[in-house]
Amino acid sequence: MDKNFSFLNSISEISEATFKKLLEAATLVNVEAGNQLIKADESPSKVYLLISGFMRAYLSSETGKEYNKKFFLPYNFVASLTALIKNEKSRLTYETLTDCQLYEMNFEVFMNFVNTDLSICKLYVKTLEGVFMDDEKRQLEFISMNATQRYLALKKEISDIDSLIPQYQIASYLSITPVQLCRIRKKLNANY
User: What is the pLDDT of residues 110-164, one digit of tens each?
Assistant: First the structure.
């Protein structure tokens, strides 16, 4: 069975005909590391399904400091959802951290499917529920865990994160400095 079809069916049941309809409306693209698929202060028009590679969504301050909001692993939907829904400019930049393969689809085309196909509508609702639960989980981590616990939770989710991206980006995601992250790693290594 096709991995992409299996992934979508793990969210909400769709038929092979519906999957084919989605595939025909999507384009498979290969994107090199360091490319910005969605830029801050631009109006996005597409949604993506990350098939391989690693991405991030981040906010840049006026001074140029970057704050990582989310990391994306394979089989994750990637979109500036608020900007798409409200038809406004994205506040975040979505960047490939490694070479990536993605399906891209025009959001209006997708929403037309949502409004005309019940199984795609259910898929959309289940995806939105997943986004909400992920955001809630991250918020709870920030109010209930210290930096070491947040780092260990991230390592549990993405075991090889230390080899995938630079330390300063991991630190940014954890809302700590790279020096603090270095201390946490040293302490953890000393305990093992």
Answer: 999 999 999 999 999 999 999 999 999 999 999 999 999 999 999 999 988 998 8
CA-based nearest residue to 40, from 52, 22, 16, 57: 57
Q: Token pair of 145, please?
A: 């865990």
Length of the chain equals: 192
In the block, which residue shows the tokens 């399904």? 49
| 80 phi, psi to nearest 5 deg | -85, 80
Answer yes or no: are the C-beta atoms of 122 and 162 closer than 8 Å.
no
Angle at 176 between CA 172 and CA 179, to 5 degrees: 105
Cα distances (angstroms) measured from residue 39 to each of 29, 104, 162, 184: 18, 15, 25, 32
What DSSP state is assigned to residue 87?
T
Q: DSSP letter at 54?
A: -
105 phi and psi angles, rounded to 5 deg = -145, 140
User: What is the rounded distance in angstroms from the CA atom of residue 23 to the CA atom of residue 135?
Assistant: 28
CB 28 within 8 A of CB 96: no
H or E stretch covering 29:
strand 27-31
Contact between 178 and 184 under an 8 Å Cβ cutoff? The reply is no
Cβ-based neighbour number of residue 163 at 10 Å: 6
d(CA 156, CA 135): 17
